Each structure stands twice: as C-alpha cells, then as structure tokens.
Amino acid sequence: MEKTAYAILIVVAIIWIVATIIGFIAAFPLGIIGLVAILGFGLLFIKALRERMAKTKDDRYSRDVEK
To answer: pLDDT tens digits, residue range 10-57?
Structure first.
C-alpha cells in the first residue's frame, strides 16, 4: 500500500514538473527564468541524493539509534 502511494506521488510530481516546463516554454521570454530556476533546483537535488547515497555512515546512525 505504501509503495503504491509513493508510485502515485512520483507520477503526479513528474506530470506537474512537465506541465510547469511546458508552461515556461509557452511564456518564452520570461519563462527562461523559471527554466533556469528548475534546472538549479534539479541539480541541487541530484547533488543531495548522490551525497546521501555515498554516506553509509548515516545509514548506520539511523539504524542503530535508540528510540
């Protein structure tokens, strides 16, 4: 059930991002600013994911912490 919910959220997020990009392209001269902003956020998101996946130490802390 949880995986289905995540899958639905991912699909909706992708559709929303594509619709936003299409809207920015439709508003061409000023839409470039939005496209650059989305590109910047995307690059920062990818950087954060790579750093998180590379650090197994964080996994150990989150797994071994007493609750």
So the answer is: 999 999 989 988 888 888 887 788 888 888 998 999 999 888 888 776
- To the question of pTM greater than 0.85 for the whole model, the response is no
In sequence order, which ranges of the chain are alpha helices (DSSP H)? Answer: 2-26, 28-54, 56-64
CA atoms within 13 A on the CB side of 8: 5
Question: What are the distances in angstroms from CA 54 to CA 39, 47, 48, 59, 61?
Answer: 23, 11, 10, 10, 14
Q: Tell me how many degrees the CA angle 7-47-34 measures, rounded to the nearest 5.
A: 75
